[in-house]
Specification:
Layout: E1 9-10, E2 13-14, H1 20-37, E3 39-43, E4 54-58, H2 65-70, E5 78-82, H3 88-96, E6 100-102, H4 109-120, E7 124-127, H5 144-152, E8 156-162, E9 181-186, H6 201-226
Parallel strand pairs: 3-9, 4-7, 4-8, 5-6, 5-7
Antiparallel strand pairs: 1-2, 8-9
């Protein structure tokens, strides 16, 4: 079992890194679903670094935003997903495709270790920085995104998923309109840290403010590009 550079343990127990092969399988499944059920338009995928650790910061207006990104991103993604989704067969499936269960009510050390493992291995970590489904406008960010970016040094790529929450034309209430257009817009990669090497609470708070500005600007630009 590969260990995290700082020990690979949470509460004294070894932590198994998420499966990279599983995430690759999840990407193939996502491609089939995305292109089979909807009409995706992907912009800026070339901005995603082809190798090395990356953090996708994704707006979150619909529960399918994660699967939609899995099917349109140029690299496999390991998402941090609330533990409430890991129930029964769905939970086993999510674990099998390399997704990371997180307890949002506490500082989940196991989830933190597994997420850092993804980045230490040069993988892609997906985060909904607003913490839960909302208007998808990046108006309220949690500090977790800044922590992972500053701790790992991985660049952040902002991602806007637009059209997933549209209601007009729905045949199934819980799903976006089938064969409807969904725009996925990738922004320029950027560093969250200020270059000082600080990891203090103040440094993370300042990084969160910088991140929020970059994400809001990307979303505004994505809406202008797509007309949404």
């Amino acid at each position: 079992m590969r260990r995290h550079p700082r020990g690979g343990e949470a509460d004294g127990r070894p932590v198994t890194p998420p499966s990279a092969k599983g995430a690759a399988t999840g990407r193939r499944i996502g491609i089939g679903l995305m292109y089979g059920l909807w009409n995706p338009r992907v912009l800026g995928a070339w901005r995603v670094p082809a190798a090395g650790p990356v953090i996708f910061a994704v707006n979150h207006a619909h529960n399918l935003d994660g699967p939609m990104l899995m099917g349109t991103a140029p690299r496999p993604v390991h998402f941090l997903i609330k533990q409430e989704a890991f129930v029964g067969p769905l939970g086993r499936f999510l674990d099998g495709i390399g997704q990371i269960k997180v307890d949002r009510s506490t500082a989940d050390r196991t989830a933190i270790t597994r997420a850092l493992d993804v980045l230490a291995a040069g993988g892609v970590l997906g985060i909904f920085p607003e913490g839960t489904r909302s208007e998808g406008d990046f108006a309220s960010l949690r500090a977790g995104l800044a922590y992972f970016a500053v701790r790992s040094g991985a660049p952040i790529v902002p991602v806007a998923v637009l059209g997933s929450s549209e209601r007009q034309g729905r045949l199934v209430k819980a799903l976006p309109p089938l064969r409807g257009r969904v725009d996925v817009v990738f922004g320029d990669a950027f560093q969250a840290a200020d270059g000082s090497g600080r990891r203090t609470r103040k440094a993370l708070d300042e990084a969160t403010v910088r991140i929020q500005g970059r994400l809001a600007a990307h979303l505004e630009n994505a809406r202008r590009l797509t007309g949404r």
